[in-house]
Amino acid sequence: MEYFHRYAQAFDYEGGAEGCLLIHGFTGTPAHMRLLGESLHKKGYRVKGILLKGHGTKIEDMEKVTWQDWLQDAVAGYEALRKTCRKVYVIGLSMGGVLTLLLAEQYPVDKVVPIAAPVKIYDRKAYGAPLLKYFQRFRKWGGSGEGPTAEEFKDYKLGYDGFSVEALCHLLKLMKLGEKNLHQIQCPTLIIQSKTDETVKPVSAQIIYDKIRAPQKEILWLERSKHVCTIGPERELIHERIQEFLRR
């Protein structure tokens, strides 16, 4: 398999008896989660950053996969950590956040951290994907993106500049599945959401908070970040709050 950058590949950092599964988002790569992974590894955690099928190579590969493939990737990552770790925490960005919610609904996850997980999105045209896919194979991402990236972090800003419309249909399916059974989540939950997210409506975080049944739950509201907040200006705050949450 040919990756478009070395950081687009999965990563696995050995550590102690507590493991963290990191899951990137739709059209993204493990590069978006690598800074967080490095931060957690320095604190002694075993960290596994997975690559979802159809990502990190070429955009045409997205047409070959389904939501079931992505969920199975997440399950496989969770089960791999569960074999060696006493506790397993799942942390995901965007679609990866939805996958962490699905894992927490179906498996004995110890703690879950959905970051910018979509329940409601701004792009109304996205909901027409089931029809649009018959007329258009790919779409470019709109908006202004994440803005300038410091030279030292440019290798972490890696993902496709567009997406498969067919694959978007599968993302919409995952979003529905994730929201449907939120009431099944009872493990401690830290929800992270930026108020200035240009992709996911911030109300998504409140919906997740209100519907899960976890006795320990909280929302970390970001003030200055775009959607891919794990490589944004508040990344260090994210690292600190996640570490604090996992230590409790």
From TrEMBL:
State the species of origin: Geosporobacter subterraneus DSM 17957
Q: Where is the active site?
A: 94 (nucleophile), 197 (charge relay system), 227 (charge relay system)
Listed GO molecular functions? carboxylic ester hydrolase activity
Residue ranges of coiled coil: none
The protein depicted here goes by the name Carboxylesterase
Signal sequence region = none
Instruction: List ligand-binding residues for substrate.
Output: 26, 95
Where the record annotates domain Serine aminopeptidase S33, the positions are: 20-227
